[in-house]
Amino acid sequence: MCTKMTERDFELALEVFRACLPRVGAKAKNDRLFLEALQYFTLHNISWRALPERFGNWNSVWKRFDRLGKAGVFEDYFSILAGLDEGAHLIVMFDSTVIRAHVSAAGAKGGRKVKRSGVRAAGSAPKSI
């Protein structure tokens, strides 16, 4: 990994992550690999499909991320990490939000091009019922 997380940091993050997981349902085989996949995803700003094969099937990683996100696991995870003195710096490594604008958002302002003057608009009849 090209981050500054030590082995101890990953062990702490993994311990907190496992404590936040729901008690019901099937347990995953490799939680560390899943956390590494999420870290790689956010660090390299890629799409899910571009996730390297060493993390497993990209769709399985995404489904697990989606399921855990809807269950509120990540909110608990980040709040616990933020509360730990020794683990607070780990939030920077995992908590990253990327918001991309649509292609059309880069263009000129849309909408009506011609504006009516106030005097002319006051003298004319309304156009709708």
From TrEMBL:
Domain of life of the source: Bacteria
One Pfam family recorded for the sequence: DUF4096
Insertion element IS402-like domain ranges (all copies): 15-76
Protein name as annotated: Transposase of IS4/5 family
Species this chain originates from: Roseibium denhamense
